[in-house]
Amino acid sequence: MGGKDTGLVCYLCGSGSEITKDHIPPKNLFPHPRPTDLISVPCCRECNNYLSPIDESFRVFVSSVAKRSSAGDTIWKKEVVGKTFNRSPKLKEAFRSGIITKASIASGISTLVTYIQYPEESACIYLNRLTKGFLYHLNPNLDFRNFHYDVVQLIPDQNNVDMLYSSSYYLEKGDAVFRMWRMLSEGDKPIGYFVYVFYDALIFLVKVNM
Fold it and tell me: Is the dihedral of CA 55, 134, 185, 166 positive or negative?
């Protein structure tokens, strides 16, 4: 569909040319059959093409975590290992080079812990894009393109999760695939907080200064 016909503009850059749909969150996170109620927002073809490889690499990262949900396990085995790595040896090598092992001491006992590194810039692009998409969808009157976004990775904590459930707008897509909490403060300079959980394993916070 074209921007001239629909009057829609890209939620990321504001262009009205070659408008396509961008799913928030990206539909590649979901095993088949995918949910039928996925959110889509207008996105120009240039932005969509730019985001596509980031979507693929971020999926590799979040589905590789050992304590992932069964949905994450399906994505990792069937989509990432079974298809993505065969299709993109370069991405497979980038993933391998991001695996590091460090010594960790707990209760006086030293153990080796394996970590997966992912480029901070790509993570920020991915998570900030989600936040802008949800702002477009949930708060269409906000001019969010000039907001400031800060990304932090959180350690899963049940107390924090309980607090989020009790005090925030909550959205869930898929079975243990994606969860989102949103908090908006009131005042002269409102602040927004978006918390994203992928495959019940990785948690990220995006702070929005409006």
Answer: negative
Query: pTM of the full predicted structure?
Result: 0.88
Q: Is the peptide bond before 119 cis (omega within 30 degrees of 0)?
A: no
Asked if 20 contacts 48 with a C-beta cutoff of 8 angstroms, the reply is: yes
pLDDT at position 76 over 80: yes
Spatial neighbors of 62 by CB under 8 A, at least 6 apart, are 29, 68, 72, 198, 199, 201, 202
Question: Using one digit for the tens of pLDDT, what is the confidence trace for 137-150?
Answer: 998 888 888 889 99
Do residues 130 and 194 touch, judged by C-beta distance below 8 A? yes
Sequence-ordered list of residues with C-beta below 8 angstroms from that of 109, at least 6 positions apart, any chain:
none
- For tokens 């959205």, the residue is 171
- The rounded distance, in Å, linking the Cα atoms of 61 and 129 is 17
Alpha-carbon distance values, 162 to 59, 156, 168, 176 (Å):
26, 11, 10, 16
79, 174 in Cβ contact below 8 A?
A: no
Residue 92, Cβ density class (10 Å: 0-12 exposed, 13-18 middle, ≥19 buried): middle
What's the whole-number average pLDDT of the chain? 88
Total residues found in the chain within this entry = 210
Six-digit token string for 198: 């992928």
Dist. CA 23–CA 179, nearest whole Å:
15
Quick one: average pLDDT of 117-124?
Answer: 94
| Nearest one of 27, 16, 60 to 130, comparing CA atoms | 27
* Residue 114 reports pLDDT greater than 80: no
